[in-house]
Amino acid sequence: MSASTRTVDRNAGTPARAARPPQPSTARRRTYKMGHGYWWWALPAVILMLGVVYLSTASGAFFAFTDWTGIGSFNFIGFDNFVRITQNPELVGALINTLLLAAGFLIFTNVLGLAFAIALNRGLKTRYLLRTLLFMPVVLSPIAVSFVWKFIFAYEGPLNQFLGAVGLKNLQQVWLASPTLALGCVLVVMVWQNIGFTMVLYLAGLATVPPELEEAAALDGAGAWTRFRTIVVPMIQPSIAIASTLSLIQGLRVFDQVLALTGGGPGGATETLATEVYKTTFVYQQFGFGAAMALVLSVIILIFAIAQQAATRDRTGIGD
Amino acid sequence: MFQYTRRTLILEIVMIVVTLLMLLPFWILIVTSFKTLPEVLSSPALAPPTAPTFDNFSTLLSPESSQSAGIIQALLTSILITVGSIIGLVVLGSTAAYVLARSTRKWSTRTFFLFAIAIILPTQLGTLPLYIGAKEVGLVGSPWGMMLIYTGMLLPLSVFIYAGFFRRLPRDYEESATLDGASRFQVFSRVVFPLMSPATGTVAILAGLIVWNDFFTSLIFLSGSAWQTLPVAMYNYVGSLVSQWNLIFALVLVSMLPILIFYVFAQRKFIQGFAGGLKS
């Protein structure tokens, strides 16, 4: 602080000095507060956020009811785009794929992530090292990770080599070219990359469970499963809410892995809503129709996110 | 009761084996990128290369290679866009969150609510009008446009993290600086800004990773331009390499190195950022 500002001391003599009880700061304290005069500090962020998030989303929803191609004029066509979606088997298939992937992703990342978190919570000597290693895939780009797995699933790849080595030669195949198995392969890659993420969220929750509580319950004769169900689960409820909501949203939005692993194939067997939105809008230039699909995806995400929050939060009333 | 028993030892061994299995893709990635193509196709994928070769990397990165310029350019573009976006998110996010957290007026709670809703709002729907708007003003295919878009898209996250931090920050420092005659701006730049570095670290790591690894947005906004980010350049290049796994894996390994090096040095901060930043 420069000497000149100190000598000016405009605020000397305000009642602030007298009113300084030792209690922690609350909103009622008058001493340091920012009033109307500083709203413009938030202005650049608010304008950018309104433009990039709200304005664009609102106009996207608007175009969903038009037949715009991205250039020239457009007509209002009401719900025609949405009717077209339901009549197109490939898009209905993409919707089902999206829901299947999201459900599988939600279940596997959370069950495995929680299992890893419990195993690495305390006791093990190598727990910090193992946590660090298991979290590593999370920081990598899904595209890069998908290319590694594309080789693993390839005909000449390690998975078929392994099957050949253990005498299951008849199971060898081009995994990503199988209409029935390709979706499962995409799921494996998504889960593999994100187990570390849910694990870390659950570790943060488990850290709030006092060991004494579990010990006391154990002394009272509660088995491991009973302790988990009656003590751990209620106490990590906030982590469950966050991890399940985030993984569900992430699962519904899956795009990178599909594009890198299968490109949506074979024969549309792994198309998701996000890849269809991309292709319709930016490859085939059907902006209005693509916007309608994006609106469907967005509404699904919002409904699931809100329902998930309600379902996982209300039970304990802990909130966050 | 939580002593190191025989069961703990068994669990420890099981977890080490499970972790090693989980890391197998990394092992395959590394050994394959040092093999020749005939060896990739003939040897077991898990076997280390008989004669490790750097040819794949030199084919990709040597100045004579047709692709090296593209890869290095993509690396620099990714760095530029990520750093620019982080700066935007720290400057705009912290100032906005500061007034929103320190003011108790109605407008500030309402504005904060807008930021909070924007976090869960899916981005797909907005991408298309954003693209048209950006094209109109000439921001498509430019790294500056990308910085602006990423900053706008991730500001809700940044404001949310900073506001949570400022709410927990006692006002005592700011009060005494004010009593010493500091202006609001001086209080922020000299007192608050240095104190908020934990929140800045969280914002930089979370937002930086999202921007660095983002594929969808840069695929759309930068397609066909000279500015390609690493994921998009990799995607395009791998498409032209058709099953030359040795070259593909050398490229993938090179693309992963910057973030992995970061991770090795700051893994604590990464994990804390993910566990804490998304929760509060």
UniProtKB/TrEMBL annotation, chain A:
Superkingdom to which the source organism belongs: Bacteria
Region of interest: Disordered: 1-29
Segments crossing the lipid bilayer: 38-65, 99-120, 132-153, 173-192, 287-307
UniProt-listed SUPFAM superfamilies: MetI-like (SSF161098)
Keyword entries, A-Z: Cell membrane, Membrane, Transmembrane, Transmembrane helix, Transport
Cell location: Cell membrane
Primary localization class, coarse: membrane
PROSITE patterns to which the protein is assigned, alphabetical: ABC_TM1
InterPro entries the record matches: ABC_transporter_permease, MetI-like, MetI-like_sf
Protein topology in the membrane: Multi-pass membrane protein
Ranges for domain ABC transmembrane type-1: 95-308
Assigned protein family: Belongs to the binding-protein-dependent transport system permease family.
Protein's UniProt name: Sugar ABC transporter permease
Source organism (scientific name): Naasia aerilata
UniProtKB/TrEMBL annotation, chain B:
Record's keyword annotation contains Transmembrane: yes
Transmembrane segments: 9-30, 71-100, 112-132, 144-166, 187-212, 245-266
Alphabetical keyword list: Cell membrane, Membrane, Transmembrane, Transmembrane helix, Transport
Localization annotation: Cell membrane
Membrane topology: Multi-pass membrane protein
Record's keyword annotation contains Transmembrane: yes
InterPro entries membership: MetI-like, MetI-like_sf
Superkingdom of origin organism: Bacteria
Xref: PANTHER family: ABC TRANSPORTER PERMEASE PROTEIN MG189-RELATED-RELATED, LACTOSE TRANSPORT SYSTEM PERMEASE PROTEIN LACG
Family: Belongs to the binding-protein-dependent transport system permease family.
Protein name, per record: Sugar ABC transporter permease
